[in-house]
Amino acid sequence: MEYTVQQLAKLAGITGRTLRYYDEIGLLKPARVNSSGYRIYGEKEIDQLQQILFFRALEVDLDTIKKIMQSPEFDMITALKSHREELLTKRRQIDLLIENVEKTIAMKGGKVTMSNQEKFSGFTKQMIEENEKKFGKEIRSKYGNKTVDKSNEKLMGMTEEQYLVAKKLEEQVLETLNEAFVTGDPASEIAQKAADLHRQWLSFYWSQYTKEAHAGVAQMYVADERFSAYYEREHKGAAKFLHDAIMIYTGVDK
Amino acid sequence: MEYTVQQLAKLAGITGRTLRYYDEIGLLKPARVNSSGYRIYGEKEIDQLQQILFFRALEVDLDTIKKIMQSPEFDMITALKSHREELLTKRRQIDLLIENVEKTIAMKGGKVTMSNQEKFSGFTKQMIEENEKKFGKEIRSKYGNKTVDKSNEKLMGMTEEQYLVAKKLEEQVLETLNEAFVTGDPASEIAQKAADLHRQWLSFYWSQYTKEAHAGVAQMYVADERFSAYYEREHKGAAKFLHDAIMIYTGVDK
DNA sequence: ATTTACATTAACGTAACGTAAAGGTGTAAA
DNA sequence: TTTACACCTTTACGTTACGTTAATGTAAAT
User: What is the CA B63 to C1' D16 distance in angstroms?
Assistant: First the structure.
């Protein structure tokens, strides 16, 4: 049995364009070309196409498929295994994305019914995320990927116990901050203690502490009202105060 | 503080090209352009860029980001929700892809020029695979994806040492089975020990042990001659014997 | 004979940049 | 002051796997 482009296309559930493209890139050539220039495919080509579509379904790129098809068993297994790794990585990424999207939805949507606690915890993760964006690359090049990954693992995989400790620290930051605020001096000992507690707390979410990043977070506290609101429940201006204290603490001016 | 393209790019961990592109498509315009045509960005642009990168990390396409940024709260939630749906669909697809890739790996693994050892290891994978097919779905819903992934990772990512231990267990299963076979009683202590060793061995490949799965494997030993052949090298009927022992061991009747 | 359905090649469009190429600008060292 | 060198600019083609016209030829059905 012989097939023309459309026939084979219909058979395989693809378009004619795809077949012409595969011909063009030398992935699947027709058995012959008739006198009118029509591409004619035979049984052998059907089998090949099936193989191609199989790999394509696995999201293997056409170039790789070509190589695989041209020399079968040419380390197909290794190729598939690494492809599998890619897929697993991809899924982990998607899992993270879903988590983040849901987090964002929750923050945007459930404005009312969320406790400040929960809100902040959500913000924290977002904050870490954005910090990662800002400083991630630097740190990656400085300390290697492992450090950063570990940090992310830490963030995402905190145990219940760790989480409780972090929450405790969070409270202490707030307490100390409020206590320090009344002194009015961000360089005061108690204010610096607040900054230090804040560093400890941050380190819980971010294993690779840097002054710059810490200062960056502080910047966000004044810039972003979602954060400032959290710190200013007791005293208006507390977020700015914490910011100033952290700036002194880190010694980062700018 | 003002930044030129490279400076901001470095800060944000992207390339200058990206910033120029964002300018080109009107996603992020510089604060101003100096007399030499240099793009100059300010603090406000940094914040905007952070927002952009946040959405980009969520794999939202730039066009959508643009719309979101241009009219904040423009049904951001709905947009995010549908984006979440997309992600979920994508994950399901990837799950299927992974499943198929693994199936293919397993099938290709048990092919031609392999030693018996290697063959068996190939069969093992296929077996695990088929188990996964049979019980995977249940387990996924019961224990979530993470458990199953861990199991697969375990299977594919065993260390050399682990592999040796597994091989040792494999031998012991065979030894004990042969020893038990002569008693003729699959309920005997030694036969049950064989079943237990088999469970241990299986657990090496499958971190989430369940009686049902174990029984399923046993079923395969009698149904599939590739497996039975392995166990019956010494005694004919040994595969059936192991099957019976495992059935008693697991308490799964049927 | 005409319509319909199919075939062909050529060529532009897609998304989000990467990567030259060709040339201007800023600044620090020789 | 010259020179080196890093950085800036715009222009424009390359990337993937086709989709989508466009312009035109061919086979089959009415």
Answer: 20
Considering only A78-87, A92-101, A138-147, B211-220, which range has the smallest mean pLDDT?
A138-147
What ipTM is given for this predicted complex?
0.46
Q: Which nucleotides of C are covered by protein (CB under 7 A)?
A: 6-9, 15-19, 24-26
A-B contacts (CB, under 8 Å): 88
Return the residue in A51, A97, A131 with the most chain B beta carbons within 10 A, the one to mutate for interface testing: A97
> Which CATH fold topology does B5-72 show?
Multidrug-efflux Transporter Regulator; Chain: A; Domain 2 (1.10.1660)
CA-nearest residue of chain B to A74? B108
CA closest to B57 among chain A residues: A97
Question: Tell me: the pLDDT tens digits for A229-240?
Answer: 667 666 777 877
Considering all nucleic acid strands, name the nucleotide whose C1' atom is nearest to the C-alpha of residue A34.
Answer: C7
Is the sign of the CA dihedral B103, B105, B108, B114 positive or negative? negative
**Sequence ranges of chain B with CATH classification 1.10.1660.10:** 5-72
pLDDT tens track for B25-79: 999 999 999 999 999 998 788 878 877 877 787 677 898 888 878 765 556 666 6
Long-range CB contacts for residues B37-45, cutoff 8 Å, separation at least 24:
B38/B4, B38/B5, B39/B4, B39/B5, B40/B2, B40/B3, B40/B4, B41/B2, B41/B3, B41/B4, B41/B5, B41/B8, B42/B1, B42/B2, B42/B3, B43/B1, B45/B8
pLDDT surpassing 50 at residue A253: yes
User: Residue B216: which pLDDT band, with cuts at 50, 70 and 90?
Assistant: low
**Does domain A5-71 fall into CATH 1.20.970.10?**
no
